[in-house]
Amino acid sequence: MRRRKPRFKGSRLLESKIKASGKKIKERILIDFTRSMSTMLNARLPILTCISIISKETKDNDFRAVIDDIKKELQKGLSLSECLSRHPLIFNSFYINLVHVGEAAGILEIVFSRLESHLDRMYQLKTKIKTALIYPGLILGVALSALIFLLLAIVPTFAEMYKDFDAELPGITNFFINTSNFLGKYFWLILISMFFFFWGMHYLLRTKTGSYFAQTLILRIPIIGDIIIKSSLASFSRSMGTLLENGVPMVDGLKILNHASKIIKLDRLISDMITSLNKGKPLSTALTKDQIWPPMVLEMLAVGEQTAQMDRMFLHIAETCEKDLNAKVQTLVSIIEPLLIILLGLVIGLLLIAMYLPMFDLTSVIGI
User: Fold this and answer.
1) Are residues 361 and 214 in the same domain?
2) Of 18, 144, 167, 214, which one's alpha carbon is 20 to 30 angstroms from that of 226?
3) How buried is 166 (Cβ within 10 angstroms: 0-12 exposed, 13-18 middle, 19+ buried)?
4) Which residues contact 241 (CB under 8 A, 6 or more apart)?
5) From CA 363, how far away is CA 347, in angstroms rounded?
6) One domain for residues 42 and 158
7) Domain range enclosing 27
8) Is residue 100 part of a domain?
9) Helix (H, G, I), strand (E, B), or coil: what is residue 350?
């Protein structure tokens, strides 16, 4: 049921303009659009009227231009899904195919309601993870800034003072003084090197080999790797459940979601699932080959195949993964916060002790 997207010169120019501006349409705007469509369609308003109202209410200029383009093409007689397919940067294949299903089955208001629920759940999940990790990030940023300030502004003052004494200093004091001198002398060179390093890593991660290698390493990190996998499985399961719930065949649904995930390992697994289904094998056959799926999830999918309720089972798996994910995120935050505070407190405390240590033995420092 995957449809070929028509190409339009005007829409490509509009998409290019949005892409060139470097500005992405916020997820919240797309959710609000979907919610508005759901509300108005359930009120039995015509599609063109719904689009006209949304165009007047939209405050984002880029999105208003997209809505106006959709309105113009609707007036020419195109279907809503065809109009949406003109803007792939905003409406992905998942969104477009569900709208097409709604049009074909005459349940567009139901589809938009489910789409709104799906998008909102996914948005809340990502927001919850980001919010949970902001505080540890702030602690790390403030502590590192304080450490750099001490090394660049405070330590040199002590270094000049001890230099006048012309005495041998403790090893730890020399270490921090040498670190301060090195940082002060090559500060801009270090910043430029870090910029090119991260730029190179960003370029490398955009390649298939580099991305797969980095993901393999990250997924092996305790807790963090599990959080990434659980998040990907929750997203995939909810998307798959939503597609099946709206009447999209299993294989077509997998093809829609194939290559949609940022996790290469999951994309390869979806390809294996498609191959198994095309060969007439159960879905669980492909899943048992990889350890990315927890045993409980495999059992749930096996039951779903036997009872022909895969849509409900995928949605139930998504809820289970999301609950487990919330618990793991809270665990990670509860571990990271005290560890960061203790570790950086020790480093800064050690630095201060190292600077004041020679003063505890002024006689040997002065050389009397």
Assistant:
1) yes
2) 144
3) exposed
4) 310, 311, 312, 313, 314, 315, 317, 318
5) 27
6) no
7) 9-91
8) no
9) helix
Tens digits of residue pLDDT in 241-297: 888 888 888 888 888 888 777 777 777 788 888 888 888 877 766 676 666 777 777
Helix orientation angle between 250-257 and 224-245, rounded to the nearest 10 degrees:
130
Which residue type does 85 have? S
Same domain as 87, residue 131: no
Q: Which residues contact 184 (CB under 8 A, 6 or more apart)?
A: 151, 152, 156
Question: What sign does the dihedral 24-38-58-125 (CA atoms) show?
Answer: negative
For residue 291, give the CATH number of its domain: 1.20.81.30
186 contact partners, CB below 8 Å, separation of at least 6? none
Contact 267, 261 (CB under 8 A): yes
Q: Give the chain's domain count.
A: 2
> Tens digit of pLDDT for each residue in 335-363?
887 888 888 888 888 888 888 877 776 55
Domain boundary residue among 91, 126, 148? 91
Let me know if 177 is exposed, middle or buried by CB neighbors in 10 A (0-12, 13-18, 19+): buried
**Within 13 A of 131's CA, how many CA atoms are on the CB side?**
7
Q: How far apart (Å, rounded) are the C-alpha atoms in residues 167 and 164?
A: 8
* Residue located via tokens 């001890």: 162
**Tokens 């270090």, located at residue:** 190
Residue type, 240: M
In a domain, 1, yes or no: no
6 Cβ neighbours under 8 A, 6+ residues apart: 82, 85, 86
* 257 and 215 in a common domain: yes
Q: Is residue 2 part of a domain?
A: no
160 domain residue, yes or no: yes
Task: Write the Ramachandran bin of 6: left for phi over 0, alpha for psi from -120 to 50, otherwise beta.
Answer: beta
Shared domain check, 153 and 82: no
